[in-house]
Each structure stands twice: as structure tokens, then as C-alpha cells.
Amino acid sequence: MSSTQTRTIHTVFQAASLGGHGFKNIPIIDMQEVTNDDPLIRQQLARELVKNHGIAEEKITEAIDAGKKFFALPTETKLKYDSRNSTTVRGYAALLSKNNDPENNGDFHEGFDIGPENSNSSQQSAMSGENVWPTPFIPEFKERVLNYYDAAVSFGRRLFPLFAIALDLPEDFFEDKTRESASIMRILHYPPQHGPYNDKVLGIGAHTDMQCFTILWQEPGIDALQVLNADNRWVNATPIPGTLVINIGDQLSRWTNDVFKSTFHRASNRSSAERYSMPLFFGVDYNVKLHAIPSCVSAERPSKYEVITAGEHVRSRRLAAVYGRK
Ligand SMILES: O=C(O)CCC(=O)C(=O)O
Ligand SMILES: [Fe+2]
Description:
The protein is an alpha+beta fold. The protein has helices at residues 3-17, 31-34, 39-42, 57-71, 75-78, 141-166, 250-255, 310-323; strands at 28-30, 49-51, 91-93, 110-114, 184-190, 204-207, 213-218, 225-228, 234-236, 243-248, 265-267, 275-282.
């Protein structure tokens, strides 16, 4: 990559993230253009919706269809897989059982959580462990969901070098830190919410995601997701077929000393149709220490966060979200 290209990526990424939520409208990255050598085309980088991401549509559809089948099961069947019975919070989360915005009264969605299938690896930590699978009811669920999980994790590994370049780091800086990526994936179902609306019960209350960045597939045709922009205004992240939404998460904020700032977002399904979405929270390996990256610390920008391992960070946030404790 030429130095002009590097500078371009750097400038655009920084503009997209510096000083808070530094965008007005949601930009689009075309992953085909990322590999294009024309520096002018590269100026289109650092966007928050990505197209040409390379994940086969079929993998997306198969995983989301398996999720739809699961949510259509009777509640008592779904509760056999209650994530509160799993020490690693894998499995089913019932409607209103989570509350992302502490000011609110619960999130009007149900979900199914999956983590890495590497429980026998060297990455044993407080949050590693077995997934739970509803195989007796949906035999194809595990394979389809893991297929998408693996594809989305590979895609995340393609995004990391772009962040590295933007941070003046070697392109492969994140590579040895994502070998056993602790990514968590959810399949979510938002039943329609009809008026009169209660603003204390959104589909998912305003929050930032906890890992490095989130790769989000959302149901086409339903405006539900919103992100907070530089002017503190909620902007619709209207689904565009063939794109995925990328939200910056808290691990990357801590690691970059807020050069990349996590994106506040929320979603409510006020349409008359069922809405499904599938976020994959791309994390680094559990044992990676989130020391502020040197190019992100200066006299004007002193280090803001205590050093913590990625695993401890995720564990405390997830347990707090589920059990209201650290
Ligand atoms: O369903 C969506 O569009 C957003 C989901 C989300 O923000 C989350 O699961 O953290
Ligand atoms: Fe989120």
C-alpha cells in the first residue's frame, strides 16, 4: 500500500471517529473498493455500512431461518435453553429479560447467544465454555449458526487491518490477538410493538456494544435501528440489502483511548412485521491486555482507562447486564 493510500485511510477513519460520534449521516464502505489500488476510491473508506462483505447470502439466510424456527417454539421449550442457567450466558434470553439502558424497563426482544466453540483451547478463561444447542428441536440449528459465526469472524479479521492502518500500526497488529477470537453472536427477534408507545420499553435501549466492533445483519425493509451522530441526533440506520452495519465497541474505545469512540445505538420495531437481527460482537482473545495504543496517547490526550484484559472486560459487562452485578 502506498503512503498516500495509508494517509487517506488514516484521515477518513479519524474523521469518522474523532471527538465523539464524528459523523452526520451513516457512510458506506464497499469492501471491493478497499482492495482497489486507486487512492481516490479509498477515500470512500471508514464507513459504517459495508457492502460486498463477502459473506454468502445463503449462509445468512440459513442462520436467520434457524433462528426464526427457534423463536417460533413454545416458550417452555425455549426456556430449556435459558442463558441464565449457563455460567457463560449462552442460550436463550426471553422477552424483556435484558435491559441495555438502565433508565428503561426492559428490552422488547428475545435472543439466543452463541460464543466461540473453542472451550478446550489454551484460551480458557472466566467466559469460555460450552455453547447450548436446541438440536432435539432443530437438528440443523448448530451447523447453520456456526457456519455464519465462522464467516462473520473471518470477515472481522479482514476489517482489523484497516483499523490498524488508521492507527499507524503495522497492518498485522491485531492478527496475533485474534487467533482465538472470543466473539459472541446473538440472533434476535423483535416482535412488533404497537402504540401507544412506552419510551421506557424499546426493542433494545440506547447502549454501546462491549467488544471491539460489531458486525450486524438486520432484517430488510424495517426501519428500527438508530445510531447517535455528532450532533447528538438519532439517525436511522435504514437496512440496505446486501450490507452489514459496523458499530465501534467499548474494547476498541479503551484500546484507542477514545480515538475510536463506541457508537451509541438503539432499536425498536414499530412496524407490523416481525423483525430479526444478527449481531456478531468481534472481540480479541480473552487474555489480550487493553493497554492504550501508543499513537492514541499524548499530552493533550492522556490515558483514560485502567488496563484490563479483554476477557475480564467482557465478563464484567455481560454478568452485569444479565444479573445486575459485576
Ligand atoms: O437489532 C439491532 O439492530 C441492534 C442489536 C444490538 O444493538 C445489540 O444486540 O447489541
Ligand atoms: Fe448493540
